Amino acid sequence: MPNVFLFDLDMTLVDSSALAHLRRSQMWNAVRQNMNLIRAFPAQGRAAPHELPALLRADGQAVGIVTSSPEWYATAVLQQFRIPYDVLVSYGDTENHKPDPAPIEEALRRLGIAASRESLYIGDDVGDVEAAYHAGLASVAVRWGPTSIFELSSSAPDIFMSKASTLLRRDRIGGRGYIGEALTSKWPFHSHWGSILHCDDEPVVYALGRYFTASDPRHATSPLSAAVLSLKNNDSQAQILGECVGRAVALFDWNPDCIIPVPMKPSQERNRFKELLESASDHFDEDIEVELSGLKTVKEIDGYKQMNALQRAEAIKDAFDTDYTWSGAKILLLDDVYTTGETTRECVRILNANGAGEVRVMAIAKDQRVFSRKTCSACGRSMKIRENHTTHEKFWGCSGYPDHCRHTEDF
Ligand SMILES: [Zn+2]
């Protein structure tokens, strides 16, 4: 059964960043006059992104383009860069648009192919990942787009791709996935740099897979999420999670001197990282020390889970301390789930204030936004999560904006 490769166009196959502002403002006349500003991305490995459709088709694969841009624009870009395709779905072809699955479903319908996880949708932003999820395809996010790693890792695709040529190795794509998900699911697995999910910078945060909350339909089929949840109460999954951590540390291109877990509350008797780190240490260099009590909690915080980000940041200040002087040591801070990062940032601050050389963070899993489909109460079209450019507050906006509907709702 052949794979189908459906691609987003802008910032996935071609670099149209010079026209991003004009496209967002729907100033299509100005876009039309400046098509020469669209660039090819440079080659990565043995292919540049815009060459992928031709290479895949030459290999007998079906290729489609699914874009939210108008048809005249898409066909002009595809012609300009000599990108071949079997099907093109553009803005006018469907009533609903990404992250709604309608455009992807329309492409599959025209190809006469049923949706399956063997087919891939390749895009650069969160809406692409979400549309692929709703359509029942595997999602691939490319790392050369403008989306921040925090945004992308919070709505993580099934596969992160930092090099275009990866897509040409179908034997390898099958064995890709995040190391924590692959090992807990007992999938065949090739370790590679993309098997660790890069979640944040300053501090640098990595996760070993995705954490789906109990309200997310994906929770039921995620052994990693179940394992992380059980670690709060017992050590039944400590062995396998330790293997995930240990093998990820061994895979790193950054060697810490020491691994320290985020500290327990004073009221907690069991250290949930103790057995896990014993298991982990079977897999990495014995020069790396594990310091279970490298950090301690000196202030218990009531009602932390109910607080918003600002209240959390305030409450957690000076909640931790360390008995050591770290003398320039490189420290890997271990946490279970990375959510908004207040706890880890405060731990890193305390370690840095006590002489640490560099601190990076490894979370077993990155929590994920639940993909919920929301329909507009004014017109029935699907709604998208949008952001106010000034306040950066998120809100639901109708996908019929601006021509058909201007309805918004609080996020
Ligand atoms: Zn509407």
Protein described:
The structure is a single chain. The protein has 411 residues and is α/β, with parallel strands linked by helices. The chain has helices at residues 20-24, 28-33, 52-58, 71-80, 102-111, 126-135, 149-154, 170-173, 179-185, 223-231, 238-251, 274-280, 309-315, 342-353, and strands at 4-7, 14-15, 39-40, 62-66, 87-89, 120-123, 138-142, 159-161, 197-200, 205-207, 210-211, 258-261, 289-290, 296-297, 320-321, 330-338, 358-367, 383-387, 394-398, 408-410. Strands 9, 10, 11, 12, 13, 16 and 17 form a 7-stranded mixed sheet that branches. The chain has a 6-stranded parallel sheet with strand order 5-4-1-6-7-8. α12 (274-280) links the parallel β12 and β13. The chain is globular and about 65 Å long. The model has no long low-confidence stretch (mean pLDDT 91). Zinc ion is lined by residues 376, 378-379, 381, 398, 400, 405, 407.
What small molecules does the structure contain?
A: zinc ion
Helicity, as a percent range: 25-40%
Report the top-level CATH class of the largest domain.
Alpha Beta
Give the beta-strand count: 20
* Terminal-residue CA separation: 41 Å
> How many domain units?
2
CATH architecture of the largest domain: 3-Layer(aba) Sandwich
Compute the number of helices.
Answer: 14
Q: How many strands, which pairing sense, and closed or not: the largest β-sheet? A: 7 strands, mixed
Shape verdict: globular
* Average pLDDT taken over every residue: 91
> What structural class is derived from the secondary structure elements?
alpha/beta
Note poorly predicted spans.
none
